[in-house]
Protein 1
Amino acid sequence: MTIIHGLILEGRKDMAEFHSKIKTIEWVDNYSKMVDQTLLPYEFKYVHITKGQQMYDAIKAMIVRGAPAIGVAGAHGVVLYAQELREENLSRDEFVKKLLEKADYMATSRPTAVNLMWAVEKQKEVIKNSKSDISGIVEELKQNGIRLEDEDIAINKKIGDYGAEVVPKGATILTHCNAGGLATVGYGTALGVVRSAFAKDNTIQVFADETRPRQQGARITTFELTMDGIPTTLITDGMCSYFMKKGMIDMVCVGADRIAANGDAANKIGTYTVAIAAKYHNIPFYVAAPLSTIDTSISTGDEIVIEERSHEEVTHINGKIICAPDVNVINPGFDVTPNELITGIITEVGILRPDYKKSIAEAFKK
Ligand code: MRU
């Protein structure tokens, strides 16, 4: 365990190198190793997940979070269940049947980010197509999980490179929530764009929305950007239009949890508000996401299931109640930005532009 909060405040130069080496989630021997994101920014600690149910709970409790990261977590979860079932002396048919049921269960640990269902589906394909015995299936699932990890980093670097091309010189980029290395296996999507742009032009800077109620912007985005030495200003969610009106924001770049076939994009609650403000102030609004975040089975964002989270996330801060105890609370975790507010969707195959129905369909043919 390494406590690095103090080191960041000291502005240590080796932080960027440390950041570039972090793998948010990684398969090691027979378990999944992940950064416990509920502890950030106070403590940087890895946890070892050794059972399928533990993985389900870790995803639900947001120990691992961010669409691509929970995709890989779901894939690892299937391997963990496979390892457990291997010990039960089942016939191969029984093993496959039970494992497919466990995989479906794993996919329900969070409802909005489609990368979770996508990655679990990839593991189900391995199970269904395998000609191997039980141990062979477990090994194939493990290898597939590791492949998804490596692919994620490579994809994010491509997203970063495409995105960097549309970042104006010296731009101030506003982002919401955390779509950095810690929301993926590494490098990040929206923050991948920032990292690639900063490598070309170190005069860019970021405004990071705090992102109520879980504060991923404050806790995780500022943590990541500071490690990279990228100038960052933390603002609260309600401040974005104020700074846009002052001409202080040149571009918005956010991640996504699920994108419909028409380009409507679900992301952390509050993203829609930012998109409306950006449109009003004529500021380009980009969504950066891998193709695995695009759910072509749904035609519009209306079909995206929005996660309802605990009321305590709204009523409490650091365990302390901040409102009248009996007040009504609603806590949707995500909102959907309509495609007409999105300037472009930055993917690993290039930047998709409106008409999204067409450009998304084309992207899947590449
Ligand atoms: O609830 P979270 O923290 O999992 O939500 C994360 C987001 O909304 C991110 O912006 C999105 O997953 C993109 S991550 C590359």
Protein 2
Amino acid sequence: MPAELELGLERRIGKRSAAVIEKHLGITTVGELLNYFPRRYLSRGELTPISEVPLDEEVTLIARVISNSTRAMRARRGSLTDVVISDDAGTGSARAGGGLPGTLKVSFFNGFRAKAELQPGRRAMFSGKVTRYGGSLGLTNPDFLLLDEDPDTPGMDPEKLAAMPIPVYPATAKLTSWSIQKVISTLLDTVELESVGDPLPAEIAAREKFLPVADAYRLIHAPQTPADFQRARDRFRYQEALVLQSALARRRAQLAAEEATARRPAPDGLLPAFDRQLPFTLTAGQAAVGKTLAAELAQDSPMNRLLQGEVGSGKTIVALRAMLQVVDAGGQAALLAPTEVLAAQHYESIRRTLGPLSRDGLLGGFGPDAVQVTLLTGSMPTAARKQAMLDAASGTAGIVIGTHALLSDSVSFYDLGLIVVDEQHRFGVEQRDALRAKASKPPHLLVMTATPIPRTVAMTVFGDLETSVLDELPAGRAPISTHVVGLAEHPGWASRIWSRSREEIDAGHQVYVVCPKIGTDDDGDFTPGEAEPSAADLEDDNGARELASVTGVVDHLRDEPALAGVPVAPLHGRQDPVLKSGTMASFTANETKLLVSTTVIEVGVDVHNATLMVILDADRFGISQLHQLRGRVGRGGLPGTCLLVTSLEPGHPSRRRLDAVAATTDGFELSQEDLKLRREGDILGASQSGGRSTLKLLRVLEHEDIIARARQDAQRIVAADPTLAAQPRLAAAIDEYLNPEKEAFLERG
Ligand code: ADP
Ligand code: MG
């Protein structure tokens, strides 16, 4: 049966309208248009606060006309009509020219209709892009609709009319929100809503007292009162959460049903030997998570687990212990790191931590029971890389540590049993999957995040993984104090930073200096996928300010009296790998006292003697990046200090991030704050936000309880009915919801 929702639009709204909708919105079916929900609602009786209207986006707003004047244009033929509109929040005086709070200057070229209709006192809805000229806000050639003569509502009780919400649809420059509304109102008259099935299982709809699906469609598009659209939204929001969580639960069930090789602990293997030689006791969290992992690895279905933890909570040891269990059972483990520096660091520190339990590919020499740990990165000399590849393929290497070079086609494994992905935010799902494909049977998978992420984000973005959390730091971790150093208010502090560094070095400690750029004339060294400053942040000082760069700062420090005689070294991603690892070794050995680098040191780098971190132009970094960066100090029982240096004026929006980071060292709190300052699309990552929005009504931060409830429902439904055979409409909604691109996203996950 050609279900109502799958019908071509022309069948319900006619060829003409269907063509317009397809052209501007790319929508072709009844279902897609019905699910094109208003983004928000304006209240007919209220004006839109102009100060809250976003710049440079298609917006729809209601305002009152306060003046209207027309003049001939000087340079060319035609006239210019200037209309000043207001939200009545300002002074209310009709001073033309704009610039008053709560006013907006609207310009029309040859605007004959505007000249005639937009008379002072009229209320109208405008649609267009608000831009800023000099000090005042403006709108050029917008579409408008006079509200008081809205032909759709003849003879309605004025009070009721004033309360009636006006749906605002995501509009385009060519198709206004009210044109979309008109088409949808035709659709609502012609569509057979009663034949639209409900994807929600009946018992859930009853439990939640949701509107029937047909009513919900009517009320979300044509509400009479705010309560109407609230109720409709409640149902669709939950529906959205359930469909998404069911997709993820189905995916989890599919993964769990795959057959993996069980890697059981060996009583006289490397892992027990390693535990006996550990110089510290595991935290309670490490022990508990370790137990979970050990049990899951020992099963013949694949582990798929996300390990979240605070910066410095000791995730690496947890992962290493899991890798040893797999090696003890005869398998291999791969550790995937986001940068060469981090891969090399992991290699060094894992070798060091394992001590005589490990050997490398070249030296051998230890007992035959030792595990061979192999580094494999793209920049290694050819001979060494070939040897490493050979060792991975032959099974000689028990633990292989590398960057994305591990993903290349020429790399294969003898028996890959466990994949550990460190600092996941740098890796796309495609990469995780490429590695997965290198095992003949599905390997066990452990993904580790760099900083904690809120529970609901984990449930949404990593919803196909089970989650473990390490929420305590090992004992003896010294506190880090963080200060914002505002050079705009205190220019003198610029030199104070270097004498402060000198004090630290004289006390026998070391210093990190982090810069947003490598050289004085490049575009920075941001690593993709991180919380980069938004385009708006970058625009507002027009690039006029020269940002601190690694080479620039190193040059400057040569002549800095406070640091005379101090060994300083630069480190950044564009250096030769041999130079890079030489620099890291010299810093680790406490020969280099002050390291000037980009964010290459952001993740994982572990030098216990470093106590001071200076982040220059710190406003250029995102919250989680700053949190991660400062986690590099305060590691060796010595208190750490982090200076967030900025030239921005106090009160600049980007300084909020710095204040947030200075205010707490709780990573969970910070990631909440971070997400609040970002947009939803950034939270979910590019693959989730592309095209028409993935999440329409659901907001991962706001709707935690809904997501959690839906997850429980989904888990229950899928556990009882893994293929959703008894829930065909839910299954169809999942397929519909996940367009092919998104389906692939989940499949690959
Ligand atoms: P992260 O979770 O940020 O990746 P790491 O795994 O790098 O943290 O651990 C940070 C440091 O803490 C390392 O030097 C590690 O050896 C040390 N460490 C890990 N677990 C413990 C523990 N239980 N007691 C003391 N130190 C620990
Ligand atoms: Mg780490």
Protein 3
Amino acid sequence: MDTILVTGGTGYIGSHTVVELIEEGFPVVIADNLSNSDLAVLDGIEKITGVRPAFEEIDICDAGKLARLFDTGREIGAIIHFAAFKAVGESVEKPLMYYRNNMVSLMNLLEEMKAGKSANLVFSSSCTVYGQPDTLPVTESAPFKKAASPYGKTKQMSEEIIADVIFANPSLNAISLRYFNPIGAHPSGLIGEVPAGMPDNLVPFITQTAIGLRGELKVFGDDYNTPDGSCIRDYLHVADLAKAHVAAVRRLLDRQNREAMEAFNLGTGKGVSVLEMIKTFEKVNKIKINYSITGRRPGDIEQVWADTSLANRELGWSARSSLEETLESAWKWEKYYRNHNK
Ligand code: UD1
């Protein structure tokens, strides 16, 4: 089996993807600088799969170190590139840090690919590339609207750069996966999301409020043009999302020499409001969330959910878990993590 290089493989989506790759028999090498993750993640992966993946602590913005990683004699069948900064608000405050980190790392990887070190790339993209789409559900052919943050722009620019490089180098292939809102944790409860400091995202904020780490969840706006007034997103289980990466790797390995980068939406195809999320969490986990309504969060879009028919058809993938199971897994992980990190 071809070895898969996973940048950012100790992160939230990366670690779940490493589990799925190992379970499908792929040898994995993780490259991560641990800037937003912990080596203990490797223990969780090993407990789940029985295999401890190879790990290289490097910052892939360092071109010299990245070149040495490729020169260790391993054949890299494909690269899955997760390593990037992802906090929307922080990117507004520190745009240069975001542009440098997210763009330099990608260009370093593309240079190595161009030099023949690997022919295949799976890129971690986001529905943020669409902005607020004109029609819902959004399909892959929807135009990129102006991104609301430097973070969003790095995803748009990354896709454009990859597409240009693939076009200019016909032996290289790439798939961009546009995630909607990944939530939850591995059903074992042994790996999951660990936000650094105050969480930006809804579900970690819900679980941290439930466990008593935060006093109150603030719902950002109930005056949107949606049935209950709160924003609508397409929340999918991170373990389902991880499986799509294996499907994308197989597609690249099986059919080399594509001419253009492909992009796929990954979501459930169903929109759920913030208030519905809170109610469902309370119901399945039998716990009350202390919350109040506050003003809109700048940069939030009103509603978005995915048309996933292309991924269903071409990758043979769909999100299988119910919202209930997903929110149960998020709570299981929060309890496990707090119990083991007191
Ligand atoms: C956004 C991007 C996503 C990106 C992610 C990274 C869009 C559509 N999505 O996700 O691509 O990867 O940021 O962080 O641009 N909410 C509250 N209270 C909270 C937190 C969130 O009410 O304390 C609400 C938000 O207003 C939003 C929903 O919950 O309506 C989801 O928010 P969040 O989890 O932060 O994800 P997005 O902003 O959708």
Protein 4
Amino acid sequence: MASSSEEKKITTHTLQEMKRRGEKISMLTAYDFSLARILDDAGIDVLLVGDSASNVMAGHETTLPITLDQMIYHASSVVRAVKRALVVVDLPFGSYQGNSKEALNSSIRIMKESGAHAVKLEGGKEVKESVERILSAGVPVMGHLGLTPQSIYKFGTYVVRAREEDEAKKLIEDAHLLEEIGCFSIVLEKIPASLAARVASELKIPIIGIGAGGKVDGQVLVLHDVLGINKEFNPRFLRRYMSLYDDIKKATEKYIEDVKSKSFPNEKEQY
Ligand code: KIV
């Protein structure tokens, strides 16, 4: 359903209500003004300015290189486009793990300089103090457990997480901890569907899945994957809705042909 400008803005409270009444939450990543405007106009509930910008916007192999300044640039572009969606911004690698004061300062910069509505960070018990300190300043926090791409060099691979009992147990404990200390929602990435379903049923806060099955409270995907701008990334959990790589390539080839053949611009396309 498309949104209208009169429609109420989505807040963290709205998401809790949606979970309570069993309405699924839709979330996509966004990094720039033009696409964020289309997604918001289409009625998306949450826009995540993900640190996946490091991959899809900047071409890095991992999410680690992106900086706080770069995240703020992307976030402020998205915020300017949005009338309805809740805008959540990833705290980039190195901006919150050092100590809780650094985490707070990074979050305050994001909120002040971009106008976003919440931050997201990766991890459970290890980041407890940082999450508490950010929350104490009134900044809403979304957690992120399971496959946490900022720890890729610890994991060594992007395979499904928490298949083993120990890791699953820690994930459940971390999810409860994040809820207890006040996170408004948690992303669960690439874990068994049965484990994600258990977490979603035990917790009151909304659980948003990516590669975590359908029995959670909402879904998130990376926009460039959904639109088929990336051809190389084909995980099982991804559903592509377009093949923009091919369409953009074809359009570009046609434009080049028209320029070279002098058919562009024609008489009507000039002054
Ligand atoms: O950065 C990102 O795009 C994310 C999603 C995969 C949840 O964190």
